[in-house]
Amino acid sequence: MLQILFDALSLGSLYALGALGIALIFGVMRLVNFAHGDVIAFCVFALLWPSTDAMAIVFAGQLPWYLLVPFVLLCGAGLSVLCEIVVFRRFRQANPATMMIASFALGFVIRYFLLMLFSSRPKSISLLPELSQPVEILGARLPLLQLITIVTTMVILIGLTLFLRQTRFGLEMRAAAENFSMARMLGVRANRVIMGAFALSGALAAAIALIFGAQTGTLDIQMGASIMLMAFIATVIGGLGSLGGAVLAGFLLGAASVIMQVMLPIDARPFRDAFVYGAVILVLLFRPQGLIAARGTKERV
Amino acid sequence: MAVAASLANSTAAGAAAAERKPARFALARRTILTPVLLSLLLLAIALITVTTGSRPFNQTVIDVFVRVILVVGLYIFIGNSGVLSFGHIGFTCLGAYAAAWLTINPMMKRGSLPGLPEWLLATRLPYWQSAVLAALFAALAALIFGRVLMRLSGIAASIATFAMLAMINTIYSNWESVTGATSSVVGIPIVRVIWPYLIGAVVAIFIAWAHAISRSGLALRAARDEPTAAAASGVDIPRERLVAFVVSGAVMGLGGALMAHSIGVVTPDTFYLGLTFITLSMLVVGGMGSLSGGVVGVVLLSALIQALRWLEAGVSLGESTFALPKGVQEIALGVIMIVILALRPSGLMGNRELALPRSSRNK
Predict the structure, then answer these.
(1) Nearest 5°: phi and psi at A132?
(2) CB-CB contact of B110 with B243 (8 Å)
(3) B-contacting residues of A 72-111, CB under 8 Å?
(4) How do the domains of chain A map onto residue ranges?
(5) 0.90 exceeded by the pTM?
(6) Which ipTM value was assigned to this complex?
(7) Contact (Cβ atoms closer than 8 angstroms) between residue A179 and residue A296
């Protein structure tokens, strides 16, 4: 029972972090960032030295953890900000569909850039191996990593909340998410806020990359995409632009996946995802604005 | 309120029916040039292909025509309703598998797909009949899903359609006895002649045109541009969206069936995110507000992809052979798409249709 709870929480953590990264950018730019998954993949591969061999040449992955973590976070934030400066800045006025396709094209570029450098073969790596030892809590054996995932996510969430609530920059960002043009008129600098949002979202992507890399032990170019899709769905059913909603929906999706895996009859288990997506449609039908509707995203007449 | 609106709607329609009819014909006359020109463009491509007689080129052009069908199918819904749908490739998947069920040799079917109902196991139809049935099957699925989904709008609708695609994909990847799960379904008769695909594409274009100038299509576009005003004038938005959804579902199903016949193999993952994004990109780059945009987007992006592939394979320039490193093709494609969108945010064609210059039409 406890095992299920922790499974759900740790899967939900990944989804929540991903959803948060997408929601942050959507909040300030109304951009659904399809490149987010590829930023995750990029951060994962930042651990390796570029080579197309089957053997992974570990580069940054060998660093001690107190250097490794900031390095990967910086990679993610840097790439994300770079994307903003090079690409998304030109799409501020474009309609959502155009921005979406542009972000998809950008993700495409990043993915094939990685493919060129690393080839498409999945690579195995033991990232922070000391974390995979099991620990015993209340009679359930859990991998230490799962605990760390959950704790890290909580820390990140609390830190982010404090940052958004207590600092001036956080205030500006929330103001921009609520009503961008009004915030600008009141003296919020648009470029700074948007770059800040991209940096934060990139760092979140890096956090996912670290956790995911340590969990699975294999690095695969596709790995960002699967999380990104779920995160994307979580962002929408949470209420686009609402950060709290994104996190809540991320955890709910994680819980739904794990619970269905356990509860469904054996025959139906391969179809688990179909049930999860069916549930998503149901949620949307009853709450098209999302679970927690963000202020300012309602369509204005 | 909805009842009152539809009532007002029907009375207005009844009263105005007499004078509206000529207007409809005038509209048809004024706009028919677009589908005709687009069809001629495709016909020209087909004729060039046939005269060169090169086989790989033939296959490429067949792919282009299949994509034209798919993108036109997307346009019917996305272009007219303004709702971005990520789910339409699901209907392509349904269409392709329906075509496979109907055309594979019964002997082979019994072995590879034993879970099919007996009457389906025994049938074997020519490909064009199966394509029509596949389109109807996809339209039926679109009707069922659309009844539920069309109540949503905006980004929620986009995600819901994506969830639909993911559901279809999950079911088709796991239903071993009926779809062969993730392994490929082989034995679909391959059609290598270019004409059926050309006919399919032209039919799709004319369906899109007929829908766009129909009462429903006009109402839907009004709702896209001014939802509140349209609803106030008695447009039942979910209903008009449903009509477009079903029509586009049928076209996507047709595209799926022809795609199955062009490659001879179907797997569920052929019809998933990759195809979704490439077709959506073609529509958006071409200009999602116009039928011509969709067709032009397909033709141009396909030509671009093909040119980059040739460059990647190596082109001999005099003495030396010039070849791009592997992987550059996709990167260049992505960069070019971004540049096009940055320069022309509403696509190459914008909202305009392909037509002769205005002066030549005696307006």
Answers:
(1) -90, 0
(2) no
(3) 87, 90-91, 93-98, 100-102, 104-106, 108-109, 111
(4) 10-223
(5) no
(6) 0.81
(7) yes
